[in-house]
Design a protein that fits this description.
By secondary structure, the protein is an all-alpha fold. Helix content is 53%, strand content 0%. It has helices at residues 3-18, 20-31, 34-38, 47-53, 56-60, 81-90, 104-115, 128-137. The protein binds heme C.
Length: 144
């Protein structure tokens, strides 16, 4: 077996351990197909539907338990609406950006869904103006 095959095998084994959703994502990473797999346009208007159909659940778990991405359940970072909006619009090191695949309304809805689910009880909801403004201003400078 070549080194490359050995590496692929190890990656796959880790993926299997991480579960089916994560497996799709890690296989996507290996093949360079991640964006097409992990960010899906959807016409859903319900928070739970956007969360599953856009691909969030594949990385963060159907119940926010985490996987490739950190747990969103009982996550104190989610109190910060700006952090959540920035993360969804522009992505992170691994998480892809959703600016091009979700509308401002969908981002508001999915933000408020994760911020009020699974033990998160954030009382100051994300609002549409915040998303519109953040989208217009663009991604924060490097390191932000
Ligand atoms: C390809 C996997 C992947 C997908 C798809 C994904 N995320 Fe993430 N997410 C991550 C990772 C990994 C991080 C940690 C930062 C980084 O490296 O991007 C993260 C970070 C976050 C954070 C910040 C968590 C914290 O503790 O600060 C939030 C909120 C979040 N994601 C929400 C979402 C939502 C909502 C969606 C769907 C619209 C989504 N993610 C889709 C992988 C993903």
């Amino acid at each position: 077996m070549s080194l490359e095959n050995a590496a692929m095998k190890t990656r796959r084994q880790r993926a299997i351990a991480a579960g089916a959703g994560a497996m799709v994502v890690l296989a996507g990473l290996g093949l360079g197909l991640l964006p097409a797999r992990a960010q899906n346009a959807t016409t859903a208007t319900d928070g739970a539907d956007i969360y599953s159909q856009a691909g969030c659940a594949g990385c963060h778990g159907p119940n926010g338990e985490g996987g490739v991405g950190p747990a969103l359940a009982a996550n104190p970072d989610l109190a910060n609406s700006a952090l959540v909006v920035n993360q969804i619009l522009f992505g992170g090191e691994i998480m892809p950006p959703f600016a091009a695949v979700l509308t401002d309304e969908q981002i508001v809805t999915v933000s408020n869904y994760v911020r009020s689910s699974w033990g998160n009880t954030n009382t100051t909801p994300t609002e549409i103006g915040e998303v519109t403004q953040t989208r217009t201003e663009g991604a924060p400078a490097a390191g932000g």
